[in-house]
From TrEMBL:
It comes from the Bacteria. The keyword Transferase applies. It holds the Pfam family Aminotran_1_2. Its cofactor is pyridoxal 5'-phosphate. This is Aminotransferase class I/II-fold pyridoxal phosphate-dependent enzyme. InterPro entries: Aminotransferase_I/II_large, AON_synthase_class-II, PyrdxlP-dep_Trfase, PyrdxlP-dep_Trfase_major, PyrdxlP-dep_Trfase_small. The keyword Chloroplast does not apply. Residues 133-345 form the Aminotransferase class I/classII large domain. Keywords: Aminotransferase, Transferase. GO terms for molecular function: pyridoxal phosphate binding; transaminase activity. It comes from Pedobacter polaris.
Length: 345
């Protein structure tokens, strides 16, 4: 089995084709990096705000767009407040470091490294089994305060996690739930965030963290939560001292609601087309309305490359791990692209 590494020094943009090969990988689920209408908005933002803003959010001179886009995002995704940082990693680390001393910390399986405190927390097994165990542990413990950290989904072997277990935790327990929704925001729950899928419990405060650089196509990170929690995070040194993302990208994000709607519709059509072909095929694993198709065929990428199709193929969770082969769809793929892929498969 060959792991192809000759595409790691590209001198071109990523898109539906790379060096004449059809490309089915990456995380640009809504095709934003090559969307002409979105690029026009970004250029408009560049002319209005310039290339970047190197001053911190604690500076006495501020661009108003940062508060404006945080308010817009909170309303759009149904949150009390929002906080925007220069990256998803910073958003995750800022949040983890602030709430690390709230109570006992427990990680769900396969939580993204951006949310780790130090080393891999080594939580194994299926999410559903872990959920049963964590409820038992919390309810039987004399500890009252807990921090639960999880992804909203597994994007490699696609699975959207069910957080209904939170309703089974004793009301006497105080829970802060930190959820990384980087691969779900803009796609799952009709384009909303995982916040809409987490049950509302009086004893649970939910904070959603996400990279905006995937489906949303913006080099930034975002945090959603209750107004009091976001206010706490905005007083941290990491928030006040770090430079914010480029305002041009946020300007485009705030003015691109229709673009996101159109591209999500295209993506869902592509997903439906491929799903209809692969339904019932035991060599594949996929879920409704998510553009990742996991292949159990270890030689898939090599076979597709011979047909000028470049799939997502890399070792996980580290360089010595097994190679994960996947087809990742984007809204930038045309019907012809999808038919070519289906013919090759």
């Amino acid at each position: 089995m060959q792991y192809h590494t000759n595409f790691k020094q590209l001198n071109t943009h990523l898109g539906p084709r790379i060096e004449s090969r059809l490309y089915f990988g990456g995380t640009a689920y809504l095709g934003i990096p090559q969307n002409e209408a979105y690029l026009a908005l970004y250029l408009e933002g560049l002319k209005k705000f310039g290339l970047n803003n190197g001053t911190s959010r604690g500076n006495n001179v501020q661009l108003g767009i940062y508060d404006e886009v945080e308010h817009y995002a909170a309303e759009k995704y149904g949150s009390g407040s929002a906080l925007i940082t220069s990256s998803g990693y910073l958003a995750a680390q800022l949040t983890i470091k602030h709430f690390v001393n709230f109570g006992e910390i427990r990680y769900a399986p396969d939580t993204h490294p951006a949310l780790w405190q130090n080393d891999n927390p080594q939580t194994d097994g299926a999410f559903a089994n872990w959920a049963v165990n964590i409820v038992d542990e919390i309810n039987s413990s004399d500890k009252e305060n807990w921090v639960i950290i999880s992804n909203s989904m597994n994007n490699l072997y696609p699975e959207i996690y069910d957080f209904s277990f939170l309703k089974q935790i004793n009301q006497s327990k105080h829970i802060i739930l930190l959820v990384d929704d980087s691969h779900g925001i803009g796609i799952i729950n009709n384009g909303l965030s995982a916040l809409s899928a987490v049950p509302k419990c009086e004893n649970v405060k939910t904070i959603i963290i996400a990279s905006m650089a995937k489906a949303l196509g913006v080099d930034a990170g975002i945090i959603f939560g209750d107004t009091d929690l976001i206010a706490e995070l905005k007083e941290t040194n990491a928030f006040l001292g770090a430079s914010p993302p480029a305002a041009a990208g946020l300007f485009a994000f705030m003015n691109a609601e229709k673009i996101y709607e159109v591209e999500l519709s295209k993506l869902n059509q592509n997903i439906a087309t491929l799903s209809n072909v692969l339904n019932g095929n035991k060599d594949w694993h996929f879920i409704p309305n998510f553009p990742v198709f996991f292949s159990k065929n270890a030689d898939l990428s090599t076979k597709l490359l011979a047909k000028n199709i470049l799939a997502s193929s890399f070792p996980y969770p580290d360089k010595d791990g097994p190679i994960i082969n996947r087809i990742v769809l984007s809204s930038w793929h045309t019907n012809t692209d999808i038919e070519e892929l289906i013919k090759a498969l």
